[in-house]
Design brief:
about 220 residues; alpha+beta; Mannose-Binding Protein A, Chain A; four-stranded antiparallel β-sheet; about 15% helix; C-type lectin domain-containing protein; CTDL_fold; C-type_lectin-like/link_sf; C-type_lectin-like
Length: about 220
C-alpha cells in the first residue's frame, strides 16, 4: 500500500511566533537619581579665617557724604586721556575712574578727607598708563611736575603699603633708593620725585597738592 506524505512526515506543531518583549529580556532599569551634588556637598564649607589685618578705616579718615549734583561734561578724547560725559566737570576719565588735580597744598590726611567729599579717595595707581595719565593731568594744570600726594601709605606697618581706596598695592613706580623712610617719619606716598618723576615716601604732615580719584 502506498504511504501518503502525511503518514511519513508527522504534522508540525503550531509555532509560537510571539517574541519576548524587551522587558522580558532586559530587566527594567532602576530609577536614576539625576540630581547632581551641590557645591556644598563636594567642597566642604571653609572655616572662618583670621581677619585680624587692620582695615584702611583705622588709618584713613571716614568718608563724608557725597555731593553728586555736579553737571556732566562733554566727551573729549586724546591719545593720553579720555574724558567721559559722566565724569564731573573738571575731572578726567580714564579706565573706569575720574581724576582731579587739586592745586591747594594740604597734609596727606586733609587731602584724603577732601577727596572723600567728592565721593573718592586720593588716587591709587595700578599701571604705567595710569601713572603717565596722572602726570599729564598735573602738567596740564601747572605747566610742571610738582610733588603731589597720591593715595599710598604704610602707616599701619612700615614697608607694607596700602592704597587709601582699599585696592591692592601690587603696582609701584618708586624712584631709585625709595622708599627710604627718612628719619623714620615718612609714611605717605607722593609722585614726581627726582629726575625720574616717580614715587617717593614723604612725611604725612607735609603740605602738597594732590590728585583725587573716584569711580565712574
Amino acid at each position: 500500500m502506498a504511504l501518503t506524505t502525511a503518514a511519513v512526515v508527522p504534522e508540525a506543531e503550531p509555532v509560537d511566533k510571539t517574541e519576548p518583549s524587551v522587558q522580558e529580556v532586559v530587566p527594567e532599569a532602576e530609577p536614576v537619581d539625576k540630581t547632581e551634588p551641590s557645591v556644598q556637598e563636594v567642597v566642604p564649607e571653609a572655616e572662618p579665617g583670621d581677619k585680624t589685618e587692620p582695615s584702611v578705616q583705622e588709618v584713613v579718615p571716614e568718608a563724608e557724604p557725597v555731593d553728586k549734583t555736579e553737571p556732566p561734561v562733554q566727551e573729549e578724547e586724546s591719545h593720553v586721556t579720555k574724558r567721559y560725559s559722566f565724569c564731573p566737570s573738571g575731572w578726567t576719565g580714564f579706565d573706569g575712574r575720574c581724576f582731579l588735580y587739586v592745586p591747594t597744598a594740604m597734609t596727606w590726611p586733609d587731602a584724603e578727607k577732601h577727596c572723600q567729599r567728592y565721593g573718592g579717595n586720593l588716587a591709587s595707581v595700578h599701571s604705567f598708563d595710569e601713572h603717565h595719565m596722572i602726570q599729564t593731568i598735573i602738567l596740564r594744570a601747572t605747566g610742571s611736575y610738582p610733588h603731589t600726594w597720591l593715595g599710598g601709605f604704610d602707616a599701619i606697618k612700615e614697608g607694607t603699603w596700602f592704597w587709601s581706596d582699599g585696592t591692592p598695592f601690587w603696582f609701584s613706580f618708586w624712584s631709585p633708593g625709595q622708599p627710604d623712610n627718612f628719619m623714620g617719619g615718612q609714611h605717605c606716598l607722593l609722585t614726581n620725585f627726582g629726575a625720574e618723576k616717580n614715587f617717593d615716601d614723604g612725611s604725612c604732615s607735609g603740605t602738597l597738592p594732590f590728585v583725587c580719584a573716584r569711580k565712574l
